[in-house]
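Note to self: keep these together.
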Amino acid sequence: MGKWSELPVNLLMGIEKHLGSNDIEDRLGLCIDKIRLRTVCVLWRFYLPKIPSYQQHQFPWLLQALDSTKDASHGLFNPIVKKVYEIDLPEAQGRLFKGSSYGWLATVEDNSTGPAIYLLNPITKSRIKLPPRNKFPDVVNYRPDKIRKEYAILYADGKRFHFFDSHRVNTYLVHKIVLSSTPSRDDCVVVAIYGQFGSLAYCKCKDKKWNSICQYGESYADVIFHKGKLHALKIDGTLIVIENIGPNAKVTEIASPPPNRVNSDHLYLVESSGGELIMVVRSFRSIPKEGLKWYCLIFKTYGFRVYKHNSRDSSWFLVKNLGDDTLFVGYNSSFSISSSSCHGFSGYLRNCIYFTDNLSDYHLKGIKGGSDIGVCNLNIRRIEQLSNFKCDPNHVWPPPLWVTPSPY
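Structure:
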């Protein structure tokens, strides 16, 4: 049997020509098969023309684990064409998604070989190993032989500690992981929100441990890299910028909390397509689950508020309309796209917030969690389910997240 690299170039070009030949898919830039074609071998990527940048940064897809009875382990759901593209991704089987940036997933696992955190490209299947959960700054001691007490975790005061089991630490005490760039770059920085209080830590891809950012015990809701600098949003809405991440980092507060803050809300930090900083406030209500104990509740989103950052007076101001922008929030690195770049679907996409369930504190595997997924249309102030996205209304595990496929 011949090698893939020996396929005649003219035949390869013919295959490329017929991929994505559907008019709607061409307009949308759905180039998932073209991306896959370039990952088969180095020579194919060399001979095939470079994918246009607007197609590389296409409309986000919702990555979900599929039923174990299916041949493919995962699916990519496109909310525009309302279709699931099945992919076989055994590298993510049984792992929790804790972030997606630049087309790469952050996965967390804890199995017989110990805790592990990986960056995974779902298209190329490439993996990059990061320091595991037992190498975070809040871990006083890790004893895998101490069943149900494997981790000794620091309190906010940095002095006392409490014992936690490995499942809880890896499931609930890694909240979100974001990247400063594609991890193929040597200067890529990985930042995690972690621990009981939402502290910040960072590492680089070849590091052996995670290092603290800011004071341990401070609570953060979201982080993004904006204009090359790390911006972090505290749970009360305070916004800080962190320059020169490391022991000599410079931390500056650039916005105080907004008025009418509700402590039970969840906050996200997003950069608009125009380069402005946006704070998204997501409000929940709890719905008792019949037949379960009082603490077993289903949390559902009932509203969003959106604020823009005013750099002149270091404040937030409420806005009612996002204009052409559409926001995507959840476990993914929060981001926006402009509807003008979505090739004919601006009327459907503009002024909406697409969200997934990232309330890991409220998830209870096997009973509830992961299913609070939908779109908030700010034009009519209404929340709807994603059309044709099928999932259990009470339980989706692991929770899906938004990802923009990329071969790089």
